[in-house]
Amino acid sequence: xxxxxxxxxxxxxxxxxxxxxxxxxxxxxxxxxxxxxxxxxxxxxxxxxxxxxxxxxxxxxxxxxxxxxxxxxxxxxxxxxxxxxxxxxxxxxxxxxxxxxxxxxxxxxxxxxxxxxxxxxxxxxxxxxxxxxxxxxxxxxxxxxxxxxxxxxxxxxxxxxxxxxxxxxxxxxxxxxxxxxxxxxxxxxxxxxxxxxxxxxxxxxxxxxxxxxxxxxxxxxxxxxxxxxxxxxxxxxxxxxxxxxxxxxxxxxxxxxxxxxxxxxxxxxxxxxxxxxxxxxxxxxxxxxxxxxxxxxxxxxxxxxxxxxxxxxxxxxxxxxxxxxxxxxxxxxxxxxxxxxxxxxxxxxxxxxxxxxxxxxxxxxxxxxxxxxxxxxxxxxxxxxxxxxxxxxxxxxxxxxxxxxxxxxxxxxxxxxxxxxx
Length: 422
Known about the structure:
It contains three helices and 33 strands. The chain has helices spanning about 5-10, 10-25, 155-160; strands spanning about 45, 60-65, 75-80, 80-90, 90-100, 105-110, 125-130, 130-135, 140-145, 150-155, 175, 180-185, 190-195, 200-205, 220-225, 225-230, 235-240, 245-250, 265, 270-275, 280-290, 290-300, 310-315, 315-320, 330-335, 340-345, 350-355, 360-365, 365-375, 380-385, 400, 405-410, 410-415. The protein has a five-stranded mixed sheet, with no helix packed on it. β7 and β8 form a beta hairpin. It starts with a helix and ends in a 5-residue tail after the last strand.
């Protein structure tokens, strides 16, 4: 049941009591921590250990199912004994907080819902201490009290920077950098902006590239003392000085329907991007000199063109789902050379995450697979289908944390027990 902001405020005391007795019962070191889209390091790799290396024939045990989250493609973030996601409810984009047993603690609207092409929420909420940050598909960047859902501040970045929305609305998950919130309005005024996370005040802006926002979430890296933000506009891959907002580089990237979606992947002074519709994958070396940075192209491949499922770098190999493949293949490229090592349908095209050296692949058609990616091919060591009920494609990225596998599909959130020795 959707709880309005007014009602959420009225139940403030009971929620605070829940927070103090439930989420504080375990030490901070024991609490699952996945505070933003693709995790604390932005690499989508969980540090979880003690997990099943192979699943039973029917899949791991389903611990619980949460319903009433609203329709959407948002993933989950986890911190301080709580989980957060978002969905469409009664014409609003609604942020939901749940306890670790899947019970809804509060639900608060963050502006109107996206109801046009592919209706539903997009953004995964971001947790920072006792605050929660979320951007709606229509541009409402909002800070909430993570315990109660009380709204602290809101800024519509499309209105503030006179930008138009994109064809399929804004899916960028907000990034916290120290005292700043990073987001990308695009349009005529600013490619990227930093907001004061306490007040929503504008700290710096990156000059416009003349393009709308892309669909990617930003990644924060540091090399040779220079802190850089990596993201896409609708037609370029850009690097931005994280301290000043200065544009460091702009690499043109023309993709049909401007589907620049993947969070850029950084490793060992190199960065990789991939886009769908046969535009392929490119890897660059990043060269830093003082407060300047430039890219040097190392290789490109048309064998892997990731749309919105993300990639994983594991043991010197890059894994992702090929968007243009008619048989929905997953592709493995050598990180150093870009050479295709192998490809296989596995569970079908979709998204992924990783833990303990294994890949957790979720297809767009509700099939989940546990996969060992060796030097010569994929080996499926477990698979199952999500329960019936969820409508539309399963696009939300899976999360492995607290010895559980979390899968969001439409109005549902599923929690599976993947502990090796329960």
